[in-house]
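User: Design a sequence. Structure:
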């Protein structure tokens, strides 16, 4: 238990939202509180700008800035906070899903006008798979949003999440007057375009006090009294244990752009958010307090400068102390590796670090040794489980347009798929190389990067598949039979795992019915 103090002072989390809900704005306010940046506007949005001439060129631009914003570390009231960035564009959702495997909790931003949106749903599904604790920030209260009760009901229903309001809003839009902190029993008054300061906080021990009427007017004061009575009656005190189990999500109302309601949330976050957690591995439970170092790679950034094959692998420390220049065991390659220039990420500036502790993310300079999911230990052979690959939904055959560059093409495909940009399958019967993605944009990115970085010219030919499912069976004979019978629909992923490529939902359902001994999986563990 050598590192208990270091572990106790760390919190590692991500902010997730549907694009435009206010993730970037909130991130910036949190960094301002942490003193990590001095001026507003310092955090570059990682979303695709609406007026960009070409989406994928915009993605290239983003790749440049997103190394710097991949991990933002700052200190607030003695707590060391690691905020992991998640790509905004839905075509890159897989990257976000994997980042969620490296955090201990999330803050979910919801736009009070739009309520629950597509990406909110998908992201929350991933959180639920892991029972990740969630704090909800309902943003843009300065806009005429949905009725507060309706909104909470919508979130609870659509996301199957039990909510627990921590603050309660007084109106919205131009009548927004502030929030009542249900826990501290104080009123925080809102003035547009000014940062909430201590003077805006009025302590109200008893809501029947006239001071409330003075501050917000009699009608709003009475509505607040009624609301609070109702809310208190329904929710009572927050059960922190249930929050930590991912069962109850505390909710804050605010306006990120006005820096309103953010501090209340941050204060609660450092009070209740989970410490770096213990994890499961392929052979045993790994306690975060163990002395020996271990960690895993959840993200790789490659070839930012086409002239150098430089890659940065992002490693989440899971136990022990990571030290610069020390030899560690790369489990998959079964070899010893050491890192002379590991980075830490103090808000947009990379620093070489000497050591790191559980919860931290270290950037490792890599020359091609890493792929997503790789585990590094002090010698023990195990890998961390639960790092998923998701069934892609778009499939295209790779057509080599320049036979002289076949080697480069193969290398490029391997490296780009190691990075997690897309998945690579090799079809049985015919040996076709198939790229599977979750979004159309990824094909453009791959084509562009193959040419720019590897000098390989490739085109893609659409394939009529609807989903790729990993197949396994207790009965090897049945599995062999199935793969023989369905050769054209069977492929191997990069790790040699068998995949069934279904033409349509009907085919998939039929095969599942006809082959009860075969299991069809929609996610696969990387390894
Ligand atoms: P994202 O990262 O989740 O995609 O969202 P981002 O923070 O970029 O915010 C999306 C838009 O919403 C931005 O406006 C931002 O200023 C605005 N916004 C964020 N918080 C609030 C809020 O509390 N109230 C209101 N009214 N607006 C908010 P934009 O016009 O798209 O961009 P910008 O030109 O202002 O940067």
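Assistant: Done.
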């Amino acid at each position: 238990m050598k590192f208990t103090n270091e572990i106790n002072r760390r919190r590692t989390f991500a902010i997730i939202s549907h694009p435009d809900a206010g993730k970037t704005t909130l991130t910036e306010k949190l960094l301002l509180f942490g003193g990590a940046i001095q001026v507003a506007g310092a955090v570059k949005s990682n979303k695709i700008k609406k007026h960009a001439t070409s989406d994928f060129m915009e993605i290239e631009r983003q790749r440049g800035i997103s190394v710097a914003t991949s991990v933002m570390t700052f200190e607030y009231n003695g707590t060391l906070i690691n905020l992991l960035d998640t790509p905004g564009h839905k075509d890159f959702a897989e990257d976000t899903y994997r980042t969620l495997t490296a955090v201990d909790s999330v803050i979910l931003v919801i736009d009070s006008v739009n309520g629950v949106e597509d990406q909110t749903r998908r992201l929350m599904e991933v959180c639920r798979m892991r029972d990740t604790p969630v704090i909800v920030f309902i943003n843009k209260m300065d806009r005429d949003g949905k009725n507060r009760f309706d909104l909470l009901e919508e979130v609870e229903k659509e996301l199957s999440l039990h909510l627990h309001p921590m603050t309660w809003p007084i109106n919205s839009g131009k009548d927004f007057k502030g929030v009542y902190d249900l826990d501290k029993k104080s009123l925080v008054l809102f003035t547009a375009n000014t940062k909430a300061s201590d003077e805006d906080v009025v302590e109200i021990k008893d809501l029947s006090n006239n001071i409330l009427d003075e501050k917000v007017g009699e009608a709003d004061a009475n509505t607040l009294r009624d609301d609070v009575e109702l809310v208190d009656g329904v929710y009572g005190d927050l059960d922190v244990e249930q929050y930590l189990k991912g069962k109850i999500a505390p909710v804050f109302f605010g306006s990120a752009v006005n820096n309103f309601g953010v501090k209340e949330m941050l204060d609660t976050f450092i009070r209740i958010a989970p410490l770096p957690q213990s994890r499961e591995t392929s052979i045993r439970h790994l306690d975060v307090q163990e002395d020996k170092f271990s960690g895993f790679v959840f993200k790789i950034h490659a070839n930012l400068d086409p002239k150098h094959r430089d890659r940065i692998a992002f490693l989440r420390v899971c136990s022990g102390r990571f030290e610069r220049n020390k030899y560690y065991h790369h489990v998959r390659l079964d070899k010893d590796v050491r890192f002379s220039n590991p980075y830490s990420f103090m808000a947009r500036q990379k620093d070489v670090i000497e050591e790191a502790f559980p919860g931290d993310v270290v950037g490792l300079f890599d020359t091609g040794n890493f792929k997503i999911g790789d585990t590094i230990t002090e010698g023990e052979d195990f890998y961390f489980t639960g790092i998923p690959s998701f069934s892609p939904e778009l499939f295209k055959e790779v057509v080599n347009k320049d036979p002289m560059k076949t080697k480069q093409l193969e290398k490029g495909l391997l490296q780009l798929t190691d990075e997690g940009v897309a998945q690579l399958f090799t079809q049985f019967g015919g040996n076709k190389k198939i790229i599977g993605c979750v979004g159309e944009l990824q094909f453009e990115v791959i084509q562009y990067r193959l040419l720019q970085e590897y000098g390989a010219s490739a085109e893609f030919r659409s394939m009529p598949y609807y989903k790729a499912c990993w197949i396994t069976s207790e009965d090897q004979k049945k599995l062999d039979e199935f793969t023989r019978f369905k050769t054209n629909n069977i492929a191997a992923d990069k790790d040699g795992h068998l995949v069934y490529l279904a033409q349509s939902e009907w085919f998939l359902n039929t095969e599942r019915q006809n082959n009860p001994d075969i299991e069809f999986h929609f996610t696969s563990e990387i390894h």
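The first helix runs from residue 4 to 8. The pocket of guanosine-5',3'-tetraphosphate is lined by residues 17, 19-25, 45, 47, 88, 139-140, 142-143, 255-258 (CB under 6 Å).
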